[in-house]
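Researcher: I've got a protein sequence and the SMILES for flavin-adenine dinucleotide. Could you write out the 3D structure of the bound complex as structure tokens? I'd like something to compare against our soaking experiments later this week.
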Amino acid sequence: MGETNWAGNQTFTAERIVRPRDLGEVRETVARAVAVKALGSRHCFNDIADCPGGVLIDLSALGTEVVVDPESATVTVPAAARYGDVAVQVHAAGFALANLASLPHCTVAGTVATATHGSGRRNQSLASAVSGLELVTADGEVKTYSRHDGVVVGLGALGVVTRLTLDLVPAFDLRQDVFDGLPWESVYEHFDEIQDAGYSVSLFTNWARDEVDQVWVKGPGRPGADFFGAKAADGPRHPAHAAGIPADNCTRQLGVAGPWHERIPHFRLDFTPSIGNELQTEYFVPVRHAVAAMEALRAIGDRLAPVLLTSEIRTVAGDELWLSPFHGGDRVALHFTWLPDEDAVRALLPVMEDRLAPFDVRPHWGKLFHRAADYPKLGDFRALATELDPDGKFRGPFVRRHVFGEG
Ligand SMILES: Cc1cc2nc3c(=O)[nH]c(=O)nc-3n(C[C@H](O)[C@H](O)[C@H](O)COP(=O)(O)OP(=O)(O)OC[C@H]3O[C@@H](n4cnc5c(N)ncnc54)[C@H](O)[C@@H]3O)c2cc1C
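Model: Sure. Here is the predicted complex with flavin-adenine dinucleotide in place.
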């Protein structure tokens, strides 16, 4: 078929991609297929979305209608809607989504299926905003679920999500201030205060330099000019500024206030996000282990830096979603934007995971990792997947390996 993911490091081995025009066609395709899986905007870096020899379902022809309900403060969206497009319509109705990822380009269904997150001490993952969803299961039936049913972070393994309802909050403005050169000592001593300094805070580093390269603070107020020893940037920055990448595709900085959806993502919807020619990995550890985990990575900083474009440190609030890496408590997110050298990255992953093993580490479902984590609700998820899909038509190699422990 020759189709690849966004990063170009995965070539799908499905037999074909189909674009059903209505719910009936989705149901028929699913019911007939032996192996089938929904495909979002292809922004994952591993084989989670692949379906060898089977059918990939692209839902982008299923409509674009976004319905805001001011009474319940919710929005109902088609599965393939992109966050950036939903955000514009939600904002026009006077509402906001509580958080967004660094890029607004991904589909809502694909994003929540992997528990994609943004940043912010008090902000849960984007999956936590899902109050309900509609799912086409293996036999072609349409079922509806609430956030309490274990289906939201579904990894595409439970069926095809066709519609989702998301919680909203009142619209708000944010400013974005960037600081250069945060001493590591400040990070270690004041980690909680730094993470509390804005609605969303991100640190960027390559783990090998003496200081953290940049801090991005997105909040309602102006942070002090001296941010725990870091200095206000004298111009717009790209997260990989230290690698010489210009800030053209980044959202507005330098303290200019603007609507939430034009400040929370790092990258603008009308540009390629991040760098484009890259790979990504991300690990999550409980916030109480933040400093120890950062020290463990700095100890191998000279091995990480040659393969890195940049690395981002954020905090994500805990939730109760079954396969969410944030299940059970707040976690610090340690993200890596790699050069596109997959062999070098794959050689590093077990080393990193060994270093982070003492800290109850869990990897991002949608990025490159070596070993999956154990989850308290993994057994329940397996039972639900087996009940909804007894023949395993939605499973694919990723889910077989990392959820069912096969092969
Ligand atoms: C440049 C860049 C920046 C990123 N920034 C962040 C970030 O800030 N935070 C973060 O957490 N992640 C981030 N990611 C990762 C990204 O958010 C996830 O990979 C996300 O899952 C991608 O969504 P997608 O629509 O592309 O899904 P895909 O990659 O197409 O699919 C992902 C999974 O979702 C399933 N799926 C898709 N649609 C459906 C559906 N309708 N029904 C059922 N299952 C479905 C697929 O089967 C698959 O299992 C980033 C990725 C890139 C490339």
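Model: The longest strand covers residues 173-183. The domain at 173-363 is CATH 3.30.70.2520 (Alpha-Beta Plaits).
Researcher: Great, I'll pass this along to the crystallography team.
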